[in-house]
Specification:
mainly beta; Maltoporin, Chain A; 22-stranded antiparallel barrel; 33 strands; 7% helix; disordered N terminus
C-alpha cells in the first residue's frame, strides 16, 4: 500500500509542477483547446451551463456539488466508442469490467451500479429488473456530452442516486447541412463504421440521423497462470457485435421548442468463461429501444417543459451446458413536467411532477412484475451577494402488486460561496442530502429467493470542496462521506438458493482531487493536461464481530488516479491517457485482493483537407504498457493492441 501511495503522490506532484510552471497564458476566452485539432467534430460543443446538479442551469464552478463534464474534446481525444470506455479514461468513476467487452458498470464513492442514477436527456434509463445498464452497450456516437454528478442525487433524480448521477446528453439537430462518416479496424478482428447526417427541413425544422456498427472476435491471448507451467492461451467465445441507430427532429411552432428523438441498439455477444475454466458457449442478445420527446415553452418570466419517454429492453440468455434459453423483457413509460419561475430578484425555483409505469416479464420472475411511480419535486437557487443556496426536496411513491406501497423523502441543501472578492474564481462548495434506492424486480420477485417485503435502501451523505479557477484552467478538491443502511444483500437461504434481505450497512469516507489546464505554447502549438484522483475508504458495518466487519467493500479500490495529456501542433495531436487502480478486495473478509495495476492508452491524430472534404486519421494504442491485469474477478483484459480510425466530413 505504501508503494501505491508513493506512485500516486509522485504522479500527482509531477502534474502539478508541470501545470504551475507554465509560462504562457491561455487565450482570453479560457478555452483549453486554443488550437482546434478537432475541427471535424462538428457542432458537438458543450453548452456553457449544466443542469446535472440542479434543474436550474448552473455552471460546474457555481454548483454545490462536484460535476465532471466530458465534452466534445474528451469524446474525440479518448477515441472512446462506448460510455464505459469514456468514463474509464476521464471520469472519477471506477468502471467495473467483467473482461474486455463484458458487462461494464459504474461505481461512485464506494457504491454500486444500481446505486448510481443513469439519465438520458434528463430522464432515467436504468433497467427496473436489474437496476442498471451495461455501459459497454451505450455508444458515444449519439452523444454531445456526459456529465457526472458526485454525491447524493435522489433529491434531483429519484431512485438509485446514492453515489451520484451520470447524465448522457444526445446530439441536437442543427440549422446547417452537415455529414460525418468514419470507419475503423483493429486487433483481434475489430471493425466498425458509423455515419451521421444533419439536415435542415424548412426554416424552423432540422433533422439528425446516425447509424453505427461494431464487431470483434475478441480472441486476444492472455497468460493462464493456473496451468503449470503458466501458458499463453486465447480467449474463446468472446465475439460480439453491436448496431445502433439514432434519430432526432427539432422544430419550432409558435413559442414551442419541440424535439422528438429515438434510439435503438441491438447486440449479440459470446460470454467467455473466467480464465482457467472451460467455455460453456454462453451467449446473450440485447435489444434496447427508446423514444422520447420534449416541449419547451415560455411561461411568464419563466418556462414550462414537458418530457416523455417510452423504453423497451429485451435480454435473451442462452447456456447450452445448462440447457437454458431464457428471455426477459421490460417496458417503462414516463412523463415529467417542470416549471421554472423566478420568484424574486434573488430566488428562482424549479418544481414539477413525474410519473412512470414499469413492467417486466421473465421465466424466473414469480409474476409479471409491475410498478407505478409518482413524484413531486421542488428546488430553488438563491443568491445573496457571493453566496448561492441550493435547497431541494423530492418525494417518491411506488405502488406494486398485492397492495404493496413504498415511499421515500429526499431533502438536500447545497451551498456555493465565493469568499474572496479579489479572486472570484475561488468557490467553496458543500451539500448534504438523503438518497434512496427502490428494490429491483429481481430483488422482489426472482424465483426462488425474491423478497417482496424488501425496504428501500437509504443513505445520508454530503461533501465539502473548493474550486480554484485561473486563466489556464482549474483545480478542485472535495472531501465526502456517507452512511448507507438497509442495503440489499443476497445471502444463502439454507434451502439451496440465495435470497435478498435488508441488512447491509456501509460507511464511506474519502476525497477527490481533479484539475485541467491548457496552454498556447507557441503559435500553432498547444498543451492540455488533466488528472483526477479518488481515495475511497468504504467499510462494511453490517455485523459487528463478523470477519467482514469494518473491511473494505468488495471490488472498491481505495486509490484510483487518471491522467491525460494532449499535445497539439497544427493538424497533428498526440494524446496519452494513464490510469492507476489500487488493490480491490475479492472477499468480504479482506483476505484476498485483486492486484493494483497501471495502464496507458495513446492516440495520434492527423487532419487534412482536400477536395472539400476534411479528414482525420487516428492511430490508437490501448494498454500501451502491455500490463497483465484484471479489472474484476478472474476476467483477463487484452494486452497491447492497436486500432486505426478514419473520419471524413465534407465541408
Amino acid at each position: 500500500m505504501a508503494a501505491a501511495f508513493l506512485r500516486v503522490f509522485v504522479l500527482w506532484g509531477l502534474l502539478l509542477c508541470l501545470c504551475l510552471s507554465g509560462s504562457r497564458a491561455q487565450s482570453p476566452s479560457g478555452d483549453s483547446t486554443s488550437v482546434d485539432t478537432l475541427r471535424v467534430q462538428w457542432e458537438r460543443d458543450l453548452p456553457p451551463l449544466t443542469v446535472t446538479a440542479s434543474q436550474i442551469p448552473t455552471s460546474p464552478a457555481d454548483a454545490p456539488a462536484r460535476i465532471t463534464v466530458l465534452d466534445s474534446a474528451a469524446l474525440a481525444r479518448t477515441g472512446a466508442q462506448s460510455v464505459a470506455n469514456l468514463l474509464d479514461a476521464r471520469a472519477g468513476v471506477h468502471v467495473r469490467r467483467y473482461g474486455d467487452g463484458g458487462l461494464a458498470t459504474p461505481a461512485l464513492r464506494g457504491t454500486g451500479a444500481s446505486q448510481t442514477a443513469l439519465l438520458l436527456d434528463g430522464q432515467s434509463i436504468s433497467n427496473p429488473q436489474i437496476g442498471h445498464l451495461d455501459l459497454s452497450l451505450l455508444p458515444t456516437l449519439l452523444l454531445r456530452s456526459v456529465e457526472v454528478m458526485h454525491g447524493p442525487a435522489s433529491a434531483l433524480h429519484g431512485s438509485n442516486g446514492l453515489g451520484g448521477a451520470i447524465h448522457l446528453r444526445t446530439m441536437r439537430p442543427q440549422s446547417s447541412m452537415q455529414v460525418r462518416g468514419a470507419m475503423h479496424v483493429g486487433a483481434y478482428g475489430e471493425r466498425g463504421a458509423d455515419l451521421l447526417v444533419n439536415s435542415p427541413v424548412g426554416p424552423y425544422t432540422s433533422v439528425l440521423a446516425a447509424a453505427e456498427y461494431q464487431s470483434t472476435d475478441g480472441d486476444f491471448p492472455y497468460v493462464d497462470e493456473a496451468r503449470y507451467p503458466a501458458q499463453t492461451v486465447r480467449r474463446q467465445n468472446a465475439d460480439r457485435a453491436r448496431q445502433s441507430m439514432f434519430g432526432s427532429v427539432r422544430t419550432s411552432v409558435d413559442d414551442h421548442q419541440i424535439r422528438v428523438s429515438g434510439w435503438a441498439t441491438w447486440s449479440e455477444q459470446g460470454l467467455p468463461s473466467a480464465a482457467s475454466t472451460t467455455s460453456t458457449r454462453e451467449r446473450q442478445w440485447d435489444t434496447q429501444v427508446r423514444l422520447w420527446a420534449q416541449d419547451h415553452m415560455p411561461l411568464g418570466n419563466g418556462s414550462l417543459t414537458f418530457k416523455g419517454m417510452t423504453q423497451h429492453s429485451r435480454i435473451r440468455y442462452k447456456n447450452p451446458a445448462q440447457d437454458l434459453d431464457q428471455t426477459g423483457r421490460t417496458w417503462v413509460h414516463s412523463l415529467k413536467t417542470t416549471a421554472q419561475t423566478p420568484l424574486t430578484e434573488r430566488w428562482t425555483t424549479a418544481s414539477g411532477l413525474e410519473g412512470s409505469i414499469a413492467k417486466a416479464t421473465h421465466p424466473r420472475l414469480e409474476v409479471p412484475a409491475t410498478q407505478k411511480h409518482s413524484s413531486v419535486f421542488v428546488e430553488g437557487t438563491g443568491r445573496y451577494g457571493r453566496v448561492r443556496l441550493y435547497p431541494a426536496l423530492r418525494t417518491d411513491s411506488y405502488w406494486m402488486p398485492a397492495d404493496e406501497f413504498r415511499s421515500a423523502l429526499s431533502p438536500r441543501i447545497g451551498l456555493n460561496w465565493s469568499p474572496l472578492p479579489q479572486w472570484p474564481e475561488v468557490h467553496l462548495k458543500g451539500q448534504f442530502g438523503r438518497a434512496f434506492r427502490v428494490p429491483t424486480f429481481n430483488d422482489r420477485y426472482w424465483s426462488p429467493g425474491g423478497n417482496p417485503d424488501l425496504r428501500p435502501e437509504r443513505s445520508w451523505g454530503g461533501d465539502l470542496g473548493v474550486w480554484i479557477g485561473q486563466t489556464r484552467g482549474h483545480v478542485e478538491f472535495t472531501a465526502f462521506g456517507h452512511h448507507r443502511r438497509n442495503e440489499i444483500v443476497w445471502r444463502p437461504s439454507g434451502d439451496g438458493y440465495w435470497a435478498p434481505i435488508n441488512v447491509g450497512r456501509v460507511r464511506a469516507l474519502g476525497g477527490e482531487v481533479s484539475g485541467d489546464w491548457g496552454w498556447s505554447l507557441t503559435p500553432g502549438l498547444a498543451l492540455d493536461l488533466g488528472f483526477t484522483y479518488t481515495y475511497t475508504d468504504a467499510r462494511n458495518r453490517t455485523t459487528p464481530g463478523a470477519p467482514s466487519y469494518n473491511e473494505q467493500v468488495r471490488y472498491v479500490p481505495r486509490d484510483q488516479m487518471k491522467t491525460h495529456a494532449t499535445l497539439s501542433w497544427g493538424p497533428a495531436s498526440l494524446t496519452v491517457h494513464g490510469r492507476y487502480t489500487g488493490q480491490r478486495p475479492l472477499t468480504s473478509d479482506g483476505r484476498q485482493f485483486l492486484d493494483e495495476y497501471v495502464t496507458a492508452n495513446t492516440q495520434l491524430q492527423l487532419e487534412h483537407s482536400f477536395s472539400g472534404i476534411r479528414t482525420a486519421l487516428s492511430v490508437q494504442v490501448e494498454n500501451f504498457l502491455d500490463t497483465n491485469y484484471r479489472s474484476i474477478g478472474n476476467r483477463p483484459m487484452p494486452p497491447r493492441h492497436a486500432r486505426i480510425r478514419l473520419l471524413l466530413a465534407p465541408y
